[in-house]
Fold these 2 entries.
Entry 1:
Amino acid sequence: MDALKVKALGKRQLFLQHVAQTSPAPLAIDVVKASGCTLWDADGKTYTDLIAGISVCNIGHCHPAVVQAVKEQAETYMHLLVYGELVQTPQVAYAELLANHLPAALDSIYFTNSGAEATEGAMKLAKRVTGRTRIIAFNKSYHGSTQGALSMIGDEYWRNAYRPLLPDILHLNYNEHSSLEYITEDVAAVFAETIQAESGVHAPSFEWMQALREKCTATGTLLVLDEIQAGFGRTGTLWAFEQYGIVPDILLLGKALGGGMPLGAFVSSHKNMWTLTENPVLGHITTFGGHPVCCAAGYAGMKALIEEGYMQDIPEKEALFLTNLKHPRIKAVRSKGLWLSIEFDSFDTNKKVIDFCIENGVLTDWFLFAPECLRIGPPLSITEEEIVAACEVIVRAVEAVG
Ligand code: PLP
């Protein structure tokens, strides 16, 4: 498509016609630049990004170290061969960095293209390690949109149209002690988000997480924690599971893992991972998983996250949001680190607030299973001034929608 045709037809129209849509009403903002916490559109309007590409840009958009790493790796080599055959320095360096910041039992990293593919890999791994087939997932949980991950999605509305799905998957209530009774010796794995994202940011109790870990250990069931959104400092610590004094058997990573580039991973012990090498060999195959440019970007991003202190003032920033988000029409605000959910009486109210915010230069969104809740999960680099200004717009929006 040449530039003249784009101009004549209108980029928005071309976007709607040729870029496949699954949202009936996409935002369709024509973004021309992003840096830190700010997006610029084609008309020069700026937006404060309160959602970080849905928990991706934790160190802000286009962090210079990530940009530099991408450029250098693109000039060195890009794709070489399918996953796992050749020694690729960016993969090795990033796997080592991750392993150095994870408990000893999580020392083997399988890099994938996305979070959903990490979920798929973990489902397969759990079957191989345990020799069992049953999987437990939780209501209102989200682990991805591919067929296996979709089979675990915790909401019938989202599952129903795609049947038949995978058999032998049990959906239970998150953070309820009675659910743990169903974890028995025929269950391969329990998949749980350490902090449930799409229900509108729900943190389980310390006791429930401890009991979940104990029951999995007692029955030989693998505990898979999904930190695709919760990881990389979002909740105030590098990994959310640190706050619960437990270690999963498999950890799912994605989103911020790639520093803004597409990358996912399922992480387990070397012993567990080795089951994917035999009968059949090549137990999980991916052409692009662990792409060297993505691994170089992720490595630079994680180093910056740790070394530049983005996690240090999360409690203060969280408190600042909470102080500034007060209005009688707000039913509740839940938070865990720099991750907040503002609950309104209905989707209708929430949608009007979101539209007002976007109109006034604050980018936000709703949650998949909590459409009445407004999402806040900004880059951790957001400044106090940006927080105060964004909250002022949200409160003005709440007032305006009446
Ligand atoms: N798990 C969680 C908790 C997620 O939030 C998501 C994506 O939103 C996924 C898994 C799937 O990741 P991806 O969209 O990269 O496939």
Note: The two ends are 45 Å apart (CA to CA).
Entry 2:
Amino acid sequence: MKIIMLGAPGAGKGTQAKQIAAKFSIPHISTGDIFRANIKENTELGKKAKEYMDQGMLVPDSLTLELIMDRFANADCANGYVLDGFPRTNPQAEALTKALADKGEKIDFAINVEVPDESIVNRMSGRRACLTCGATYHIKYNAPAKENICDTCGEELVLRDDDKPETVLKRLSVYHEQTQPLIDYYKNEGVLREVDGTQDMNKVFDDILAILQ
Ligand code: ADP
Ligand code: ADP
Ligand code: ZN
């Protein structure tokens, strides 16, 4: 099964994608996580990506596509995947459709997690991230067992640089301009499904399961 998660930054794509991946035994592929891992390792890709990410801008399509096509070549993608944060622009969506079509494949579902902008800034300021394993928490809605420590790997949690309110507003405007049009793109492909992302995260997951099963 090949699934795309759509939605604003902070809508809950990553939270849901991790659960979908576990449930269906497919990899969770987050381009943001891959960029952050590269920044942490101080790779050439990481250095380039950071300049854009810190400003709340998108990393250029050429860099992003190179990285994701590389990731698709990995053996664990044979039975599908859940994409979180990719595609984010029209050219990325077109490139994905073409790469799949070349192999006679297509996306099965694009799930749009709907959350209004007003809720986003509040959510993001409470988000805490583990840069080692990619786990995500919320100080109020999904707190780790031990304050500021990752449940999974024991690392210290951080407030991402780009989750500061000023940067979140920039990311939201970039989202509306460049990513939101993909909702229509996947509607036209006949694979768009919508869920109400303002609900409790377990209820959101139940709604997604009802779509996928
Ligand atoms: P969120 O989960 O809050 O939406 P992500 O972790 O997906 O954030 O992305 C963080 C940043 O990484 C983005 O603001 C952007 O700079 C960069 N990024 C991630 N995925 C892409 C992509 N597909 N295309 C361009 N830039 C991306
Ligand atoms: P995205 O990947 O779309 O940027 P995340 O999954 O990282 O979003 O979620 C953003 C923040 O909101 C995280 O701190 C997460 O724990 C929290 N969160 C996710 N889903 C919900 C929900 N349904 N209700 C409240 N908080 C949520
Ligand atoms: Zn961790």
Note: The pocket of adenosine-5'-diphosphate (ligand 2) is lined by residues 7, 9-15, 123, 126-127, 136-138, 141-142, 197, 199-201, 204 (CB under 6 Å).
